[in-house]
Amino acid sequence: QVQLQESGPGLVKPSETLSLTCTVSGDSVRSSSYYWTWIRQPPGKGLEWIGYIYYSGSTNYKPSLQSRVTISVDMSKNQFSLKLASVTAADTAVYYCAREGLMPRRIDPWGQGTLVTVSS
Amino acid sequence: DIVMTQSPDSLAVSLGERATINCKSSQTVLYTSKNENYLAWYQQKPGQPPKLLIYWASTRESGVPDRFSGSGSGTDFTLSISSLQAEDVAVYYCQQYYSTPITFGQGTRLEIK
After folding, report:
1. How far B19 CA sits from the closest chain A CA (Å)?
2. What was the pLDDT predicted at A103?
């Protein structure tokens, strides 16, 4: 059974960098069959795809976030990570990591999510 | 970006009755050379991550009850629940994967009448 678990600070100050890690079990981030993806959901709102990393190290980010986002992978720990720079209150959200198929690009499974609040 | 618009925003249906949720994309998500619609549906219950229900617009994910069905093509899609159960109370999202970035509808909240 594939499981993903997000970890990282729940509170980040404005203008600082949000950093989260996703630990994968039951599958490998070395797999060529999937993308490893980050998605966020502001409280009470809808879902926003942030981007993914592929085992090769290639990445694809939402254009409106591209200047601030970095997704990386640590194969030795079977983890992938999200960094979002220069955060504002608008970046307050539940952040999910997930596995995304190559095609169809269905997203399954998802981690439980972690709330990150941007506040001084 | 492809904009996904769901209707209605919220819906109340009696137990055992049919629920229908609509999703419209701002441009086609039908990949004509493969004759496949690049559309998925998800269910999100309170405090939980979304759960994949349907992909290719009409293919149920393994383990999803057959009361859930998807239909439509091009820009107009429907998720139907044939006989609403109490455990179906949730917010439902459509998602397109025709182009990057992947985008989701705003969600439809389904409640019991």
Report:
1. 21
2. 86
